[in-house]
Specification:
The complex is a heterodimer.
Chain A (H helix, E strand, L loop, with lengths): L7 E10 L4 E7 L10 E10 L2 E12 L4 E4 H4 L9 E10 L11 E7 L4 E5 L4 E2 L4 E2 L2 E2 L6 E8 L4 E8 L10 E4 L2 E4 L9 E6 H6 L5 E3 L2 E11 L7 E8 L6 E6 L1
Antiparallel strand pairs in A: 1-6, 1-9, 2-5, 2-7, 3-4, 3-6, 7-8, 10-11, 12-18, 13-16, 13-19, 14-15, 14-18, 17-18, 19-20
Chain B lengths: L1 E4 L2 E9 L4 E9 L8 E10 L4 E10 L4 E4 L9 E2 L2 E11 L2 E9 L2 E6 L10 E8 L3 E8 L5 E9 L5 E6 L4 E5 H5 L12 E10 L5 E9 L8 E6 L2
Antiparallel strand pairs in B: 1-2, 2-8, 3-6, 3-9, 4-5, 4-8, 7-8, 9-10, 11-16, 12-15, 12-17, 13-14, 13-16, 17-18
Classes of the chains: A mainly beta, B mainly beta.
Chain lengths: 252, 232
């Protein structure tokens, strides 16, 4: 039985691609307090509806040295393919076996002439779990809590990034009059990203709250990552309710 | 977000006051709880120098998202860099999530609790230098000891570095362009817009949390906008 190895770590995120919207990805390979400039390779994989899954490997990265790339530079043919939300899988690898890269960070920047948004991707996880008989163990279950805010300047949605080859059905719960109730969400196809608007599913029948900034619906949803296998990440996305511009993104 | 023990979780936020800023903390648990169950959030507010200003407790039904509007507790906070500001520590039971809705001007950002950085750990923030953009770097000391933070800016082939002191439990706002870069003998960043990265690392016992407020220029002063971003 092998122990966890964290010199190879992975995270998943999403970006937006339209003729007017561009995405950049910023990396920060880090190993806690380790200060050496060890080489770190980055493998960037793109997938999504109507987009052929493909990867590029970026060499030349160094531990503790931030860097970034425009998505259209990494995948030049992207603008001729589908538009909308795309999934990203990012793997950092360091040849030094003792380097633990799990404190590395990834920031996705989505820019258009009208807006700019940056968000931090979900924390990196080791690409290896405890292995027994060569079989990768189930992805450790995590508790996921999301807060959805709906008011005059924000409307919420849940973005599910599925980089697996399985059809997934996200399982979340929310507070109901008599306890809790499952949130009615659809399925997420393999290698795709789906945005589930929460204005109807979560906020429609919720009581409004009076705040210092005005009336708002503020609801929570929760679940575990059991349904997600190892290659799934969820984000809470808030958009401007009128222009639909993305305003903020939080990893669950 | 840092856990102080296995039964509770503690987050540290930079908060700033009206008229230009407004901060609201959101607390949510991962269940609906049993009927009548409540969640308590213990809050401690410090001014920029780390002096305790207020200690208060907010209780709300566990089936709801707790909303902590900080504004009524902010009397007594000092002004630094033209902003009335402070450090709010929020503690609640394990399994809860803390977020901050931070309004800057007309824009509201929802920020997850910033990651605490211990001595020699590092975080980074991508930014665009030049083009009349301005960046306010915010550092909060999460413990009673004074904190020392090394801020390195990497752009082009340059990488100037500055050290900023933060009083224990206090916070500091530093203008990247007007206070830090003004002391560096290079003006190439003025010409056009270039990608840069801030790399932040504490050199002291106290952990710190960081964020940045960015001013984005518009065609006119009315069209300029602001946004808050966490450090990552």
């Amino acid at each position: 039985m092998e122990t966890n190895v964290a010199n190879s770590v992975v995270t998943h995120a999403f970006c937006m691609v339209t003729p007017a919207i561009r995405s950049r990805v910023h990396f920060f390979p880090s190993a806690g307090t380790t200060s050496g400039h060890y080489p770190v390779a980055c493998e960037l994989t793109l997938f999504g509806k109507g987009i052929e899954r493909r990867s590029v490997r970026l060499e030349g990265g160094r531990l503790n040295q931030p860097d970034g790339i425009r998505l259209e530079d990494a995948f030049p043919a992207l603008e001729n393919e589908g538009s909308g939300l795309c999934g990203l899988e990012i793997v950092f690898e360091c040849p030094q076996g003792r380097i633990n890269l799990s404190s590395s960070r990834l920031v996705v920047e989505i820019v258009s002439p009208q807006f700019s948004l940056s968000y931090g991707a979900a924390p990196f996880q080791s690409t290896f779990a405890d292995t027994t008989d060569g079989e990768v163990a189930a992805h450790a279950s995590r508790s996921l809590v999301g807060v959805a805010l709906q008011d005059g300047s924000a409307t919420p949605s849940l973005v599910v990034v599925n980089s697996t080859t399985e059809l997934l059905r996200p399982e979340f719960w929310h507070s109901a009059r008599d306890g809790e109730a499952p949130l009615q969400l659809g399925t997420v196809a393999p290698n795709s990203v789906v945005e589930f608007p929460l204005d109807e599913a979560l906020c429609k029948n919720a009581e409004g709250r009076e705040t210092l900034w005005g009336a708002a619906v503020i609801e929570k949803m929760w679940g575990t990552s059991n349904w997600g296998l190892g290659g799934t990440v969820c984000y809470m996305l808030h958009r401007d309710p009128v222009s639909k511009r993305p305003m903020s993104v939080c990893a669950l | 977000m840092t856990s102080s023990d296995i039964k509770s979780i503690k987050s540290h936020f930079w908060i700033a006051a009206a008229p230009f800023f407004s901060s609201t903390i959101l607390v949510a648990s991962g269940s609906s709880g049993v009927a009548g169950e409540t969640i308590e959030a213990q809050c401690e507010l410090f001014d920029v120098d780390g002096t305790p200003i207020q200690r208060f407790q907010v209780e709300f039904p566990s089936r709801e998202v707790g909303i902590i509007e900080v504004e009524p507790f902010m009397a007594g906070l000092k002004m630094q860099s033209g902003i009335i500001q402070g450090h709010l520590a929020v503690q609640s039971r394990a399994g809860t999530t803390h977020l901050c809705r931070q309004q800057v001007g007309d824009r509201a950002d929802i920020l997850t609790a910033p990651r605490g950085l211990k001595s020699r750990e590092m975080s980074f923030m991508p930014l665009l230098l030049g083009g009349r953009r301005e960046h306010l770097v915010v550092v909060v000391s999460t413990g009673p000891e004074d904190a020392q933070v090394v801020i390195r800016l990497l752009y082009g082939s340059r990488s100037p570095e500055w050290t900023v002191q933060i009083p224990g439990n206090g916070c500091r706002v530093v203008s990247l362009e007007h206070e830090l870069l003004a002391t560096f003998d290079d003006s190439s960043w003025h010409k056009g817009v270039m990608q840069g990265y801030l790399r932040i690392s504490p050199r002291s016992q106290s952990a710190v949390v960081c964020q940045m407020v960015e001013r984005l220029p518009g065609e006119t002063e009315e069209h300029q906008s602001y946004r808050s971003v966490s450090s990552w």
